[in-house]
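Bug: token stream looks shifted between consecutive jobs. Job 1:
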Amino acid sequence: LVLEGHTSDVNLLSFDRDGKRLYTGSWDDLTFREWDAITGKPGESMTGVAPYAVGFTADGQLRVAGPAENGMEDVIVRAAWDTVPIFHHEMVMRFRGPFPVISASGRFVAGEGSDQYIRVWDVDNETQVFEIKDEAASDDQNQFTGANCLALSRDGGLLAVGTHEGRVHVW
């Protein structure tokens, strides 16, 4: 099965909870698409969106994290196919490192800001629940520099950070 519809690199893939739908995104052609994962039949699509991450709420609602309308630095989380953001933080969530991630529950988003802090936000309550500073390298095994990728547990209680030093830190 080959899915065709993007005109440039595909940078995001995510199956829904039951594995029947596949969501794809391209930063270059600014498209986000839904597909039937079994038949390949296209579903809904959005243009003008460069998604970074996809998550699902407990009731199956799709959430998409991507840039706000004013550029690639501000992170916005929205319900899919809806132009109204459900979560938008400009100054705090300005990313510089790894792309933001959404927890498996769809409730939490994590990203590294231009101030070198990695923060976890509760999207439903629009509150910050955790932050850790991306420090200069040191002998302290709990310090790291250069976050390369992020992961959140389903409940947002654990944050994993993959570093350029070949380590994974978990808080």
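Job 2, same session, no restart:
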Amino acid sequence: GQTITLTGAANNWAITIADSAGVTIDASSLTNGLTIQGGGPGGNFGLFIVNTGANLMLRNLTLANGGGSAFASAGNDGGAIFNSGTTTLIGCTLTGNSARSGGAIDNGGAATQLTLLQCKLTGNSASSGGGIYRSRPLTVSQCAISGNMGGGIGFGAGPVSLANGIVARNT
């Protein structure tokens, strides 16, 4: 597969999504997919921040090594994605991401919606919600959330829908 390695960030996240018309990254036609990765365990920046009113759709991507110890120590949330808008992930893998809360994804903005379909979240870490920290609406269908430190899903407020998936072996 192909890999894009992000090497730095402004305002703590490498990629800012601010487009209300929507941004889509679809790697489903790439043989062996596409990985977008950050700085790893010692890193100091998250991969994506989705602003209020913005829309992001990711399909068949791997998001790896976002956030990191310096990022988490600075009180940042969402190692791979901090969602304040509307974000949909289909067939994605999130692994090796870390943050204060929401090791892989923090769904914490005031007007957010997060939907995951057929995704795998494994090997992510946070003090709460190693896989996902959810304080707003969350829909998870046909996903595996396992092997994350800080729990699979950390709960704040807002409705959650889990269907036909696995949330197991999170510590």
